[in-house]
Structures are given as structure tokens and as C-alpha cells.
């Protein structure tokens, strides 16, 4: 029995669409990207959705859009020390400086009690990360942001299907960034989404993903763009496709990726249902192992079933010994992420010990899959294999 960490759902509908798109020879960002955006917006009950080439690009654009409302290069963005590296890199790529805050070990998410002490006169925004689909304490974060006049850009890369007090994670702050990378719940192979209820940011994001073009892509995709743009720029330059209002990026989603996403969106509820069942099943079983701990689901939230994270708390064996045992028995594992400022050489200026809870996860955390191809029989095998290992100590 070989149990991979992730899977990839490609539906018959997607295959048909891909064929049609290839035959049409129109493969760059167009009507299918728009359709995918609309489907994603409807599911997440959000007004605007902008599809891009990766979750990292979504993070970068969400932050870069803040330049349009007065942000200056070098301003600071508060992020958790424990997250995938892309969160910190995105802050840098958008022209800002990441300021790290330790996590709450119970939730694996940024500890809101430690945010205010990191706020300075240069702070621009907070970027909470709903790690492993567990929603952050958004009430506290939004309260802090409001009282210090900060923007909130949620990194919801792993939070498809997560709900916080009735609102989908990723739609609570000014913007939310999702990843559609292959192991994620809804995937386009590679891809990303930015959500926003703010029409100004929507227009800026559409411009930023396409080199800073001065055009409302949403309108262009409906084939009204040429006349819209011509009218708008009739006094400036002839071809609006080559008129640029700001310094942008090149990270549009393409039609083939959108076709994969459209098929996946049609299966979204079913995928979520299976993954939720799997996550809850593993959470319940692993709760019986005293050498391991994981997060809990509170009654005001739904955890997005991205994966099953857990942390070794025994000094009789190491995380790596457990991981090796699982791998030897064909269960693919991933280490949890680590403390970006102190456990990766990519970032410097901090000392080991500055972020103790994040560092502990960096040493002792693991995660395994809960994806839609895993049956209860597979999960029982994962549980049994873990139990066999633990019984040796
Ligand atoms: C928390 C977090 N942020 C950002 C990203 C970046 O997404 P992508 O790999 O699609 O660029 C990921 C990717 O898994 C992630 O887990």
C-alpha cells in the first residue's frame, strides 16, 4: 500500500475543455480564467477574485496592491515565524520588510497577543497565515489592525474550505491569497487566487498581474476592453495594450490552468467532504497517542482539510525516526515548516531561541495527507503503522 502525501483531480470536463482550448489556439488569460474566477468567487462568497500563476504571486500582488493606497518601499509587514517560506519572500518581493511573530503552539498560527509589541511607525500590514487550514484568530487580528490603521492581507494558501465565525477564511481582511498548487484542495496544477471585496484593489490587482497595464481586465475579457480602454486613453497613446499605469508583474493564469480549475470546482464540495472526513478521523485517532499532539477544531470554526499536522512531544524518539518508519511503510510524510528567521539560512538577523514555539515545530512537526483518494482503510493503515512505532518505546 503506497500512500502519497497529495493527489491531483483532473475531471473529464477539464480534459474536454483543455482539448477545446488547444484547438482554439487561444490559451492566455481569457474567458475561461474569468469563468473560473466567477466560480471561485461564488463558492467563497466574495465580490472579486483575480486568478494568477501561483500562490506566491497571489501573496506578492496582495501586498503590492497596497502601494496604490500610499505604502512606501521598506515598510514592515507582520507575519508568523512559522509558515511556508513564500509568505516571507512575498513581503520582500512586494518591496517591504517581514517582521516575524512567534506562533501560538495550540493553533500553529500567529499569536495575536504578540503582534502589538512588533508594531512600529513603519508597520503597513499584518499578513496572518491560516496554516494547515486552521483559521487564525481573525477577531483579534482585525481589532489590532483597525486600531493601528493597518491593512490585512490573509495568506489563505492552505485554507480552502476553512470558515471562521461564518466567514470563509481569506475573505475577512482587505485581501486574501490562495494557492492552487498541485497538492492543495482545489488545484490548477500551478496557480493562485486573490480575493477582495474592494473594487479598487480588484482593478489594481488585474493591472499588476499584467505588467501594470492600464486596463480593466475584467472588462477586456468580456471583449469590451478595447473600446473601454480606447475611450479612457483617447488623449494619450494609441494602443492601450501597450500603455502602462504602474510597475507590474507578469503572473496571469492561463486558460489551460483555468480549465483544470473549472473541472475541480465542480467537484469541490465532494472533495472537501472526503478530506474533512479524513482529517477528523486522523485527529480523533491521534488524540489517543500521548506522545503526539495536534490542533483542535473550535465550535466557531471549520478547519480547511489541507493536511494532517502533528508534533512529537516525546524525548524517547525523534520526529525523524517516526517519519522514517512511516516512509519505510510507504506512507509519505512532510516535515512541518520551520521558523523562517532562525531555522532557514535564507533570512538572518535573529537568533535561535527568539521564536521558541515555531522552532519546536521546526524540530518536531510533521504532516501527512488527508486527500480525496484516501479511504478509511488507508487511514486505518496510517494509524496502525504509527501505533506500531509508538509501542516500541
Ligand atoms: C502558507 C503558504 N503560502 C504561500 C504558498 C505559495 O503557494 P505556491 O506554491 O502556489 O506559490 C504556499 C504553498 O504551498 C503556502 O503553503
Instruction: Give the number of DSSP strands.
Output: 14
Domains, number: 2
In the predicted model, the low-confidence regions spanning at least 5 consecutive residues are 217-228
The level-1 CATH class of the largest domain: Alpha Beta
Give every kind of bound small molecule, once each.
pyridoxal-5'-phosphate
Biggest sheet, strands in spatial order?
1-9-8-5-4-2-3
The fraction of residues assigned to DSSP E strands is 5-15%
Q: Quick summary of this structure?
A:
This protein is of the alpha/beta class and 393 residues long.
Observed structural traits:
single chain; 393 residues; alpha/beta; Aspartate Aminotransferase, domain 2; Aspartate Aminotransferase, domain 1; 2 domains; 7-stranded mixed sheet; 4-stranded antiparallel sheet; 38% helix; globular; binds pyridoxal-5'-phosphate
Notes on the structure:
By secondary structure, the chain is of the alpha/beta class. It has two domains: about 10-265, Aspartate Aminotransferase, domain 2 (3-Layer(aba) Sandwich), CATH 3.40.640; about 270-390, Aspartate Aminotransferase, domain 1 (Alpha-Beta Complex). It contains 14 helices and 14 strands. The chain has helices spanning about 10-25, 30-45, 55-65, 85-95, 140-145, 200-210, 215-220, 225-230, 255-265, 270-285, 320-330, 340-345, 355-365, 375-390, and strands at about 50, 75-80, 95-100, 125, 150-155, 165, 165-170, 175-180, 190-195, 290-295, 300, 310, 335, 365-370. Helix 2 (about 30-45) packs parallel to helix 9 (about 255-265). The two termini are about 25 Å apart. Mean pLDDT is about 95; it is low at about 215-230. It binds pyridoxal-5'-phosphate. Pyridoxal-5'-phosphate binds near residues 84, 129 and 181.
Amino acid at each position: 500500500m503506497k500512500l502519497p502525501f497529495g493527489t491531483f483531480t483532473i475531471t473529464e470536463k477539464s480534459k474536454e475543455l483543455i482539448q477545446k482550448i488547444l484547438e482554439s489556439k487561444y490559451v492566455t488569460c481569457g474567458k475561461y480564467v474569468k469563468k473560473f474566477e466567477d466560480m471561485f468567487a461564488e463558492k467563497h462568497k466574495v465580490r472579486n477574485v483575480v486568478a494568477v500563476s501561483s500562490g506566491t504571486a497571489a501573496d506578492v500582488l496582495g501586498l503590492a496592491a497596497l502601494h496604490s493606497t500610499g505604502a512606501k518601499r521598506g515598510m514592515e509587514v507582520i507575519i508568523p515565524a512559522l509558515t511556508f517560506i513564500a509568505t516571507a519572500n512575498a513581503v520582500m518581493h512586494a518591496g517591504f520588510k517581514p517582521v516575524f511573530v512567534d506562533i501560538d503552539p495550540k493553533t500553529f498560527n500567529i499569536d495575536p497577543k504578540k503582534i502589538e509589541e512588533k508594531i512600529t511607525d513603519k508597520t503597513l500590514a499584518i499578513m496572518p497565515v491560516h496554516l494547515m487550514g486552521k483559521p487564525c484568530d481573525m477577531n483579534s487580528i482585525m481589532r489590532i489592525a483597525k486600531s493601528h490603521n493597518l491593512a490585512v492581507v490573509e495568506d489563505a494558501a492552505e485554507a480552502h474550505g476553512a470558515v471562521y465565525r461564518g466567514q470563509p477564511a481569506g475573505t475577512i481582511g482587505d485581501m486574501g491569497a490562495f494557492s492552487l498548487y498541485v497538492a492543495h484542495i482545489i488545484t490548477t496544477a500551478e496557480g493562485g487566487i486573490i480575493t477582495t471585496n474592494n473594487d479598487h484593489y480588484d482593478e489594481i490587482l488585474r493591472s499588476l498581474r499584467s505588467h501594470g497595464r492600464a486596463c480593466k481586465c475584467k472588462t477586456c475579457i468580456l471583449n469590451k476592453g478595447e473600446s473601454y480602454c480606447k475611450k479612457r486613453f483617447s488623449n494619450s497613446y494609441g494602443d492601450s495594450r501597450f500603455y502602462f499605469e504602474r510597475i507590474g508583474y507578469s503572473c496571469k493564469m492561463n486558460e489551460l490552468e483555468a480549465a483544470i480549475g473549472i473541472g475541480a470546482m465542480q467537484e469541490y464540495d465532494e472533495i472537501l467532504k472526503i478530506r474533512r472526513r479524513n482529517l477528523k478521523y486522523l485527529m480523533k485517532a491521534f488524540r489517543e497517542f500521548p506522545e503526539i499532539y495536534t490542533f483542535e477544531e473550535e465550535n466557531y470554526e471549520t478547519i480547511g482539510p489541507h493536511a494532517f499536522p502533528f508534533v512529537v512531544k516525546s524525548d524517547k524518539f525523534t520526529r525523524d525516526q517516526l517519519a522514517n518508519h512511516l516512509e519505510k511503510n510507504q506512507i509519505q510524510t512532510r516535515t512541518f515548516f520551520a521558523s523562517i528567521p532562525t531555522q532557514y539560512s535564507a533570512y538572518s538577523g535573529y537568533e535561535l531561541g527568539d521564536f521558541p514555539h515555531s522552532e519546536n515545530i521546526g524540530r518536531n512537526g510533521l504532516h501527512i495527507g488527508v486527500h480525496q483518494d484516501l479511504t478509511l482503510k488507508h487511514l486505518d493503515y496510517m494509524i496502525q503503522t504509527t501505533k506500531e512505532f509508538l509501542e516500541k518505546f
